[in-house]
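Subject: sequence -> structure tokens, single chain

Hey, anyone have a minute? Need the predicted structure for the following. Not urgent.
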Amino acid sequence: MTRRNLLAGAAAPAILRKQSPKPNILFLLSDDHSYPYLGVYGAKWMSTPTLDRLAAEGMRFDRAFTASPQCVPSRAAFMTGCSPVAVRVGRFNTPLPPEIKSCPEYLRELGYYTGVCGRYFHLDGVIKAGPITQQVYEKYRLKTWSRRVDYLDVSPQAQTPAKFREFLSRVPSNTPWFFWINFSDPHHVWDKNAGRVDPKAIELPPHLPDLPGVREDLALYCGEIERLDTLVAENLEVLRKSGQEENTLVVFMGDNGMAFPHGKGSLYDPGLHVPLIVRWPVRGRTGVTRALISGEDITPTFIEAAGGKPPEAMTGRSFLPLITGGPYEPRKYIFAQRLHHGNSPFTASTKSAGFDLGRCVRSERWKLIYNCTPHMEYQPTDSARDPSWQQIVNAHNEGKLPAAIERAYFQKPRPVLELYDLDNDPGELNNLAGEPSTKAVQQELIAALTEKMIIDFDFLPPPTAD
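Reply:
Had a minute. Here:
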């Protein structure tokens, strides 16, 4: 569906004089944002009018998954079209290796002016490195993003509309552009003043017990998403006023899941399943798709939209045909990798929040998780000190947790293999690995995951003995 904005010439900036026929690309990335936490995905207890409207004007993707449940490796996949392991981003503060080409560089070769702004984008190593690390960065020129893009700014998210305007003012005439805006919401720690969501109105997912601290933390989390919605509105207004809305491909996505138990840092759906909304007025369709999408698919899609051909070495696949209406062969599987998280060195007391290794494969119905450090005690990433987790621990100590939730968080050791029937167990609480009735599907998923690990040159042994 085509929409036109009739703007007065006097109100339009100079960039309106000449525009490239190639689409501009605006990539909006929220932080730790799980599906279904937007109104348009059914979270009626919160108000997100901007993103709901964006979905109504474009395509809503109901099965989008990141390639990792953590910020750094997930963003590496977004920007390379490959898995984090394949591009050697396996540690939380690993810089993207200089020889690995990034999305902005591919687009530069296609004539694009490129930029990044907002909260730290996580692909240049530690922000404030210590003297030893900083010396290594400088010696080997490992901070590369000032060379990879034309415009680079790391500022608080509130400044993103101003930085977006500044970026647009620098784009040469008749030149398409790519701009990546990074928001910090709804990343932990949550701001009590970000929004006002009623804890009692929230619909709890199956993996979270109904405890006051759980509801209160979820309300804070949803409040930050409401604030995020306002910031997205301000940036989209900058785009509208520039007169370039019609031929700009806008992509909104979460970088990984929420910092709650079973979420960020885990390979369950709340750690990987994120919102994805795409609007392209001049060429894009409107509607909803349930096709499986991987974070690895972002760069190939942008390259194809820009008129290029994604390199064959990329394991990501362009989903541009889903946006424009062309023929598309859907994915059978998506894959994800759990890697090191945080800055602390490894110790004997390290729990899963700081260091956990795992892989997973997901089809439309089934999920297989391969835990490679099952002896590590489970701990939620980023939120172990929050009321939600503390109250879950207290309920565990008092023997008051439902049996399925008790197993999910406190089973020792954790199982090496987990298999879930997502149609009948969306909370991923009933592990069917090893059951005779699921032997065939388990072997199918093991074979698919083994293939992925081999072609990615994964450093972990695959889950098969052959």
